[in-house]
Structures are given as structure tokens and as C-alpha cells.
């Protein structure tokens, strides 16, 4: 990432110490311990995330400004809505839409091997480092079922994530008394999120996660996916009762079609 983009972020955030944690196609992500609204005397050592969408030089400046503002507002609104609905998301702190900046609470912690507790890293840790069998034990089943449950609840509210990869699912331990195997999943990155009641859009969300699990955890992906789908049904039932069950069935039926299209596409190259 060009240093002038980091310099631009720093210029928008004067006197805020920034540590870069990620540079994706859309945004730069930093951590900081400075809260944007609190006076110095009330700052704590809480860690926050700052997500910054830089301007794209290849876009017309006016259009670019509109897109940045729109995407930032859209992401923040979805996060806010999900928080209100009781779905686990990073807590919003502040938004500066014209500058493309979202502040939120940091989620997750370091695993025993020093990696961040994304679902991807955690499953890799279980598969490669942890005690044999732990990748398929009841604790893993519980967490993947919880992942599916969160997605089910999201979809029952007609919100689709748009980029459900195993890096966009972080695991956190909200209570201090939770042990090392006890985690709660939090879905992050609503940059491609949208409102949709269509089974097709929801099925594509599930398919993207299914493919991500297959490519990053090929040995156990079938089991992992089965647990996710079990939880998906639970999330629907929890929010929508009988209607939830019907909606879940519709989406899973559509998922079969999406899978079939995916297979055809890969056969045709
Ligand atoms: N609230 C958060 N707490 C902890 N880490 C976070 C948080 N938000 C983002 N991150 C970290 O920053 C990374 C990138 O964030 P995010 O996916 O939102 O940005 P992005 O630019 O859309 O990334 P990509 O293009 O790679 O999908 C995440 O994978 C995660 O490691």
C-alpha cells in the first residue's frame, strides 16, 4: 500500500496513534487505543479498530467521494441495525462518512500461537497444533453451530453479508471466566452487506462460506458445513418460529441450485 494513503489516513486522524493491521482491496484497517470523543483524562487502554476507505485515483473525484460516503454509511448502518437486533457485531464508536472512516470496538484476541482469533486461524490451530481430534470434537461443533445460528438470524432479518469468509468471522470471549475452548463468533466486514429477502442472495452467502471452508479446511469442511447448516436452521427457528423454518427450507433448496451452478461453472472452466 502506497505510503501516501497511510499518510492521508493519518492526516484525517491527527494525534491518533495508528497501527496498521490489514490492507484489503477496499480499506485499510488500523488499531488505536484512542477514543475519538473522550477527553485525554478519560481515555483507557481499550483497543479500537479504525477502518479507512481511501479514495480511488482511477474514479472521477466527485463520483469517488459519493461512493466512499455511500459505502461507509451503508456499512455503519447495517452494523448499527444488527447491534439493535441483538446480533453480535463490533460495537460502533464513530463514523466520518465523507472521509470514509468507521471506528468500532476491537473484537477477538490472540490465540496461543500468536495468531488473531478468526475462525480460519482457530480452525487451523485446532487442525495443526491442538490435541488430535479437537477439530471435530463437541466444542468445535458448538462454535460452528453458533456461526450458522448467527447467519440464520441475520438472514431472518433479511440482511445478507455479501462476503462470508472464514477471515470475516472473529471469535471472542465476552466473559472473563470463559476458558480457552469457549468462544462466541462475531461476523465482521459489512462493506458488501445489503438488505435482501431473496433466497438466492442468502444461498449465495452460505455458498461463499461453504467454499471458503472447503478451500481453507479441506479435510474437515464437510463436517464443518454440516454444523453451520444445523445452526442456520436453529437461527431461523429462533427468530421466526414456523415461518423461519419455511424460509430456511427455501434458502437451503436454493443453495442446492447455487452449488449445481458452481459445479457446472467449474466443469466448463
Ligand atoms: N472489529 C474488528 N476487530 C478486530 N479485528 C478487525 C475488526 N475489523 C476488522 N478487523 C481486522 O481487519 C481485517 C480486515 O477488515 P475488513 O474485512 O473489515 O476490511 P476489508 O478491507 O473489507 O478487508 P478485505 O478486503 O480483506 O475483506 C479483518 O480480517 C480483521 O483481521
UniProtKB/TrEMBL annotation:
It is an enzyme of class 2 (transferase). It comes from Babjeviella inositovora NRRL Y-12698. The lineage of its organism: Eukaryota, Fungi, Dikarya, Ascomycota, Saccharomycotina. GO terms for biological process: positive regulation of transcription by RNA polymerase II; telomere maintenance via recombination; tRNA processing; tRNA threonylcarbamoyladenosine metabolic process. One of its GO terms (molecular function) is ATP binding. Its main location: nucleus. Component of the EKC/KEOPS complex that is required for the formation of a threonylcarbamoyl group on adenosine at position 37 (t(6)A37) in tRNAs that read codons beginning with adenine. The complex is probably involved in the transfer of the threonylcarbamoyl moiety of threonylcarbamoyl-AMP (TC-AMP) to the N6 group of A37. BUD32 has ATPase activity in the context of the EKC/KEOPS complex and likely plays a supporting role to the catalytic subunit KAE1. The EKC/KEOPS complex also promotes both telomere uncapping and telomere elongation. PANTHER family: EKC_KEOPS COMPLEX SUBUNIT TP53RK, NON-SPECIFIC SERINE/THREONINE PROTEIN KINASE. The keyword Nucleotide-binding applies. It comes from the Eukaryota. This is EKC/KEOPS complex subunit BUD32. Residues 15-269 form the Protein kinase domain. It catalyses: L-threonyl-[protein] + ATP = O-phospho-L-threonyl-[protein] + ADP + H(+); L-seryl-[protein] + ATP = O-phospho-L-seryl-[protein] + ADP + H(+).
